[in-house]
From TrEMBL:
This is Ig-like domain-containing protein. GO terms for biological process: axon guidance; brain development. GO terms for cellular component: axon; plasma membrane. The keyword Disulfide bond applies.
Length: 216
């Protein structure tokens, strides 16, 4: 944008042009959540005298050089592309910086680790910890035993960390345990490697019973 001032004189007409420093147009988006693999388009809205140039940063590191292109286009977003984006516009009169836009990438990874075997003494508590899983946002987790969904009750609980806790285990608690994670934003789901739980007999009880039997 330029400001023109017209001066009339008996001999000629003079037009004086004054240049305008860059200024912001609009506040920009404060936060965006984009699915992994989708495209990302960010726009740097600025006015001022032409030519204007633009530069984009991600977490304070340059991702573009100075360019006349005011849009940042990423055709296929990766998890590592998440962060704080910011643009700067400049011309011969100065520069202006847009406020930051936080970009979050929604994704669901895979469970780490392999199948495990765990043994607990009958009557004692068993704690089954799910394998590590990378995801954004946090997935919805469901535990299964031998393919059947586990419903928490007074003896079985699921903690805030998605650990499965079984109090006062019995022989019927033995089996194959798996956890399913669902990312409701991406629509994806993954199932963990199995944990095979065995419940051993209470040796003290057996010893006591055997001793009583021999005594009789």
């Amino acid at each position: 944008m330029q400001t023109e001032k017209v001066i009339f004189s008996p001999l000629c007409v003079c037009v004086c042009v004054s240049e305008v420093a860059p200024y912001l147009r609009g506040g920009g988006a404060g936060q965006q959540v984009v699915l992994e693999g989708n495209r990302l388009v960010l726009t740097c809205l600025a006015g001022g005298s032409w030519p204007l140039q633009y530069r984009w940063t991600l977490n304070n590191s340059n991702v573009t050089d100075w360019t006349p292109q005011y849009r940042l286009f990423l055709p296929s977003l990766k998890r590592t592309d998440a962060g704080q984006y910011q643009c700067m516009a400049r011309n011969r009169m100065g520069a202006v910086i847009h406020r930051r836009t936080e970009v979050q990438v929604a994704f669901l990874g895979n469970f780490t680790g392999e199948e495990q075997r765990k043994t607990v003494t009958q009557g004692r508590a068993a704690v089954i910890i799910p394998p590590s899983l990378a995801s954004f946002p946090r997935p919805v987790v469901t535990w299964y035993k031998d393919g059947q969904k586990i419903i928490p009750n007074s003896r079985i609980a699921i903690t805030l960390d998605n650990q499965l806790v079984i109090l006062a285990t019995t022989a019927t608690d033995a089996g194959r345990y798996q956890v399913e994670a669902v990312n409701e934003m991406t629509g994806e789901n993954v199932t963990s490697p199995a944990v095979y739980l065995s419940v051993s007999g209470n040796r003290k009880t057996f010893f006591f019973l055997n001793k009583m039997w021999w005594k009789c």
